[in-house]
């Protein structure tokens, strides 16, 4: 009879050990899931900021004035269309990297002036208004301009 009572005590101890083991596995799984969710959220925020920067660069470069009278600009971007600014994009003035004469140009030559191919670098710095995080991108642009417009 004593062996039966000893077995009941062992079963209780084994059940407690198994419960502790399962609890440890569950806590580890929850922590891993939370870390994964944070990583995905950060990647989404980075992708949104890069998209906002690209949008700011595209808006700044949509006008020829960006090259002929360079001046920096600020673009407010509302990603989720809720009426509030999500990102502030500071687009720097287009800086000339290099320029050369267009060879064998079929484009119209005005007043005997040969167009120049100019390469510009445009920098955009994005600030997330919620977190304060910043993303910087550079965009290269190649455009044919008249000599007096070129750098």
Mean pLDDT, nearest integer?
Answer: 82
What share of the residues lie within helices?
Answer: 40-55%
The portion of residues forming beta strands comes to 25-35%
Radius of gyration: 31 Å
Q: Which parts are unreliable, with pLDDT below 50 for 5 consecutive residues or more?
A: none
Secondary structure category: alpha+beta
Number of strands: 5
Helix and strand pattern? HHEEEEE
Please report the distance between the alpha carbons of the first and last residues. Answer: 102 Å
- If helices are DSSP runs of H or I spanning 4 or more residues, what is the number of helices? 2
Largest sheet: 5 strands, antiparallel
The dominant shape is: rod-shaped
Written description of the protein model:
By secondary structure, the protein is α+β, with helices and mostly antiparallel strands. The protein is 42% helix and 28% strand. It has two helices and five strands; from the N terminus they run ααβββββ. Strands 1, 2, 3, 4 and 5 form a five-stranded antiparallel sheet that branches. It is rod-shaped. The relative contact order is 0.14.
